[in-house]
Amino acid sequence: MGRRVVVTGAHPLASELAAGLRARGDEVVVIAPEAMGSVGVGCAFGSEAEVKAAVAEAAARLGGIDQVVHAWLDPALLVERTFAEVQPHEWIGSCEHSLEGAWWLARSVREPMRSAGGTAVVFVIPSISLAGAAGFAMLATVAEGLRVLAKGCGRQWAKDAITVNTIATAPHHWVSADAGEVLSKAISLSTPAFGGPGDIADDIAPLVSFLATGDAHFLTAGTLVADGGLWMGL
Q1: The sheet that has 223-225: what strands, in order across it?
Q2: pTM
Q3: What is the annotated signal peptide range for this record (predicted)?
Q4: pLDDT digit of tens for each residue in the chain (234 aa)?
Q5: Rounded-to-integer distance, Cα 190 and Cα 204, Å
Q6: For residues 142 and 138, what is the distance between their CA atoms, to the nearest angstrom?
Q7: CB proximity list for 183: less than 8 A, separation 6 or greater
């Protein structure tokens, strides 16, 4: 029997995750700024009230929530810029928007998940949070902030049978075209063990799905690096 899953994010990575989970039999609703139709709920992550309403609508459509996969980031974080180019108001706006969005989501999903008996929240981030990357300081900062948020939630929510973990994927999946490939190579300590970053639907979605199973019930507040062996420093 499939699970009832909420996936957040407007990036292609989020839609590929949703497709991979649906292929495994899960019922998925995507929360994103431009989401539409029976499988999407629109939300710009502009306020806690907006996020809470989007989660409530997704839960109503699914009949409850078993798993939440958060892959939404402010799109400004995915544009390569030197540290000196970023203005203070841009840093504050983009970084806080992304972190507040995740915080609001976490606060909004806890009660419906607790009511459903728990299971898993997964934050999906690029693995540059573990290594840093020239031109993507804001992205690395937010990704690391999300890892810390997951740790805090995981410690507090274990009593509710809700696990909270982070999956770090290759930057190739986040940053478009050549820039993503160059970025992945820049943080690599060697040739990726599996020869590449993997496929989101075929390689990452099964790992996300595993985290919601009983076999993963004792894993929380952790980071799983799933980038094909690109970054091996954790």
Answers
A1: 40-42, 27-32, 4-8, 67-70, 119-126, 162-169, 223-225
A2: 0.93
A3: none
A4: 699 999 999 889 999 999 999 999 999 999 999 877 778 999 999 999 999 999 999 999 999 999 999 999 999 998 888 889 999 999 999 999 999 999 999 999 999 999 989 999 999 999 887 777 778 899 999 999 999 999 999 999 999 999 999 999 988 888 775 555 555 555 555 566 676 778 999 999 999 999 999 999 999 999 999 988 777 655
A5: 21
A6: 6
A7: 80, 128, 133, 135, 136, 171, 172, 175
What does the chain come to in residues? 234
With residue 67 as reference, give the H or E element that holds it: strand 67-70
Q: Tokens for 59?
A: 């839960």
The three-state secondary structure class of 71 is coil
Residue ranges in the chain assigned as alpha helix (H)? 12-23, 48-62, 88-115, 128-131, 137-157, 177-187, 205-210
- In one-letter notation, the amino acid at residue 179 is A
Q: Where are the domains of the chain?
A: 4-225
- Architecture category of domain 4-225 in CATH: 3-Layer(aba) Sandwich (3.40)
Nearest-CA neighbor of 102 among 58, 152, 64? 152
Task: Give the C-alpha separation, 173 to 179, whole Å.
Answer: 11
Residue type, 71: A
**Residue 130 burial class via C-beta count within 10 angstroms: exposed 0-12, middle 13-18, buried 19 and up:** buried
List beta partners, residue 126: 169
CB neighbours (10 Å) of residue 214? 7
The two structure tokens encoding residue 189: 């300590």
